[in-house]
Amino acid sequence: MVESTFLYLTLDLPTAPLYKDEKEQLIIPQVPLFSILAKFNGSTEKEYKTYKENFLKRFQLTRLPPYLIFCIKRFTKNNFFVEKNPTIVNFPIT
């Protein structure tokens, strides 16, 4: 276990479920904020790959700083180009 201080959290966007709008024309991918924050619940494992080995990491928040910045990873590199994930992140109002 390693403890480290932070000011921002990097959040990965999953391949989200697709919802159609009222007109049945546009497809809008949406994901709630709490589902992408599940990475930091202490029990969800994330796999990391390097050239030599694969390993699993778990993240847990023990206490929060006064201000927190979310960095949502929307861009992924492909072999040919950079692709943007258009998923909408729903933030709770209350």
UniProtKB/TrEMBL annotation:
Pfam family, one: UCH
All copies of domain Peptidase C19 ubiquitin carboxyl-terminal hydrolase, residue ranges: 40-93
UniProt protein name: U4/U6.U5 tri-snRNP-associated protein 2
InterPro entries in the record: Papain-like_cys_pep_sf, Peptidase_C19_UCH
